[in-house]
Amino acid sequence: MTRDLEPAVRDAWHVLCRSADLAPGAATRLRLLSRDVEVARNAAGTVSARLLDGEAVATREAYGHVFACLGTPAAPLFDIAEFAEDDRRLATCGAVRVRASGLRLVENFLDMAHFPFVHTDLLGVEERPEVPRYDIEIRRDVDEVWATNCRFWQPRAAASSAEGQMSEYLYRVAGPFAVMLYKTCPADPSRFDVIGLLIRPAEPDLSYAYAFVLVLDEASSETAIVHFQQTIFLQDRIVLENQRPRLLPLAPNAETPTRADMSSVAYRRWLKEKGVRYGTVEGLAGHGEAEGVP
């Protein structure tokens, strides 16, 4: 049953898998929100999913991935307008297993301060660690968290970059377990590349991260684009799996923020307002911290 899940999580859309990993006639069993879900594609190409007790699960296929909602969808799947632009290239990076709350993964994605120290000579350099002041807001009309006017010096901002640049960033949290980054495109500074991180929360402290990039890049091979993003995320995984607690604390002053952590503060406040407990320290009594492998 899914009734014990809080509505903000139960009625939200969550990634299940990449579209490319589900061939016609194929079915696979995945763990989502501590439930076993079977997802299948029939011979006609249509995707469906169900819980193992036979209960049907709402599904959507979009952005190179399959999404599911275990309850009644509270809203349509978030829109990414750039997917309608024909000159963009989509590369999906597959799943990376991370022993941490999916909320921790979103928070790490929002953090620019770690660039020079975790992604040295790729997304930052130790000689330029400053995070200039940026703007943060909870957009009530769409129920999303946005960070705008973000800037950071990067020696290699993308797979196609040949030199450093001051990158402009926009961060968008479209759901508790879905976050996107719009950043300066080296090939066309008037437009943004889009990088997304879609997280399947298997257990409160175990997640599968699906990254995608939607870029204006005619020079790089798909392998180079995917390898660049996987390199970045595997560096993050080392940090994420060593954070304690693995679950995200929402209590005030549980962890001390700095000015660079404004997006994290807003994200945690938004989660608390929505009543999100899955993957948080506050929800530990309800779900427990998973120790087994799904």
Automatic annotation (TrEMBL):
Keywords: Oxidoreductase. It comes from Salinarimonas ramus. The keyword Oxidoreductase applies. GO terms for molecular function: 2 iron, 2 sulfur cluster binding; oxidoreductase activity. It holds the Pfam family VanA_C. InterPro entries: Cholesterol_7-desaturase, Rieske_2Fe-2S_sf, VanA_C_cat. Residues 99-273 form the Vanillate O-demethylase oxygenase-like C-terminal catalytic domain. This is (2Fe-2S)-binding protein.
